[in-house]
Design brief:
With 354 residues, the protein is mainly β. The chain folds into two domains: 22-136, no CATH class; 140-353, Porin, CATH 2.40.160.40. 8% of the residues lie in helices and 63% in strands. The protein has helices at 2-20, 101-104, 109-113; strands at 23-27, 32-41, 44-48, 56-59, 63-67, 72-76, 81-88, 94-98, 119-123, 128-133, 142-153, 158-170, 174-187, 190-205, 210-221, 226-242, 246-261, 268-284, 287-297, 305-318, 321-332, 342-353. It has a twelve-stranded antiparallel beta barrel. Strands 1, 2, 3, 4, 5, 6, 7, 8, 9 and 10 form a ten-stranded antiparallel beta sheet that branches. A hairpin with a 4-residue loop joins strand 6 (72-76) and strand 7. The longest helix is centred in the N-terminal third of the chain and has 19 residues, at 2-20. The radius of gyration is 25 Å and the shape is globular. The relative contact order is 0.09.
Length: 354
């Protein structure tokens, strides 16, 4: 009787474990992995297994075959977004069984009238650039990171604190991000230097790698005598390149700029044009390079021109931990009196990401 009970318990545990581990991968080196696929982002797939305390991270180009019964939000190199399941077919291409509004946009009027709107598409595995599970709820779509840096120099009692953080959420047709960057520097017999910048961005995905964007940005900077510079920016953009190794986007739009200052300079507001570009390289070993540039020619202030530029180089050295070297530059050819036209910071931080 005891043997029978033990067998029933063993089989029950096995069934429960098998139910949770519904996904499988076959790598190009013929290794086989069974687990639960979490996501694929920037060329790296994350899979959770029962036989490891930590999630496995595998370079996407090393995967030969993939099989899953779960639903995913799948993005391809041409910007198409599918909501469905994916499995490797006989010819080693990936079969996607999907049902989503964007897929329906590609159908004829006659096809849209049919009740059976489930569709199948076959693509090369290398054409998949993003993969996000849709069955884990709100938290599976959330991403976060935080960086911290601190330095102390005995001479003049120089202390500097850096804090950088970000939060993001990915939905089927849109994504939202928020970030903040704080620098505080104190030194004997010298005025404190304080700088805070950040923003909230919203991006709505269209067909063929186009997207609509809205950004709220802010900057407070004692070096440029800025109490607050706030911008409300609307734009339209396109992914020029998007692969498992890199992406490159360009944007064009308009910005409403509002400024207040730390001295007696009157507040000022202006309407500006906006031209931006972003490049992210994430297939260079353990390094990740992100660079962004934004140009703001003024419509309402004669000959005024502003530029914001950022460059971040990140090195992943442990699970979810990294070291980052970053620089931020702000240029204004018509700053207020006694303020420099150019200001920049260089930060080295240690960070963690979810």
């Amino acid at each position: 009787m005891r043997k029978i009970l033990a067998l029933i318990v063993f089989m029950s545990v096995g069934i429960i474990a098998a139910k949770g581990q519904t996904d499988s991968l076959i790598l190009k080196n013929k290794n086989f992995i069974v687990g639960e696929i979490k996501s694929m982002d920037k060329g790296v797939l994350t899979i959770e297994t029962d036989y490891s305390d930590e999630d496995f991270k595998i370079t996407w180009i090393e995967i030969a075959e993939i099989y899953s019964k779960e639903n995913y939000l799948i993005t391809t190199t041409d910007g198409t977004r599918y909501n469905g399941k994916l499995n490797t077919s006989d010819d080693r291409r990936v079969r996607i069984d999907y049902f989503n509004p964007e897929g329906l946009l590609r159908l004829s009027k006659e096809e849209k009238r049919t009740k059976d709107t489930d569709r199948i598409v076959f693509i090369d595995i290398g054409d998949i650039v993003d993969l996000n599970s849709l069955d884990e709820g709100f938290w599976s779509r959330l991403s976060a990171n935080i960086d911290f840096g601190w330095s102390l120099t005995k001479a003049n009692n120089l202390q500097q604190v850096n804090l950088r953080s970000g939060l993001g959420y990915l939905a089927d047709r849109w994504k939202a991000n928020a970030n903040i960057n704080i620098l505080n520097s104190t030194q004997d017999e010298v005025d404190d230097v304080q700088r805070t910048d950040g923003g909230i961005s919203f991006k709505y995905f269209l067909q063929n790698d186009w997207f609509l964007g809205y950004n709220f940005t802010f900057l407070s900077n004692t070096e440029q005598l800025l109490d607050l510079r706030a911008g409300n920016k609307i734009s339209m953009g396109k992914y020029i390149v998007r692969t498992n190794r890199t992406y490159f986007t360009v944007q064009l739009g308009a910005n409403f700029n509002s400024e207040s200052f730390l001295d007696d300079t009157p507040n000022r507001s202006s309407g500006e044009g906006f031209l931006g570009a972003e490049l992210n390289l994430y297939d260079i070993g353990d390094l990740n390079l992100l660079t962004q540039i934004a140009a703001y020619p003024s419509f309402t202030e004669r000959r005024r021109f502003r530029t914001d530029y950022t460059l971040d180089v990140k090195y992943d050295f442990l699970e979810d931990f990294y070291v980052k070297l970053g620089t931020t530059l702000n240029f204004d050819n018509q700053p207020v009196e006694n303020a420099p036209s150019l200001d920049y910071i260089i930060q080295t931080t240690v960070g963690w990401e979810l």
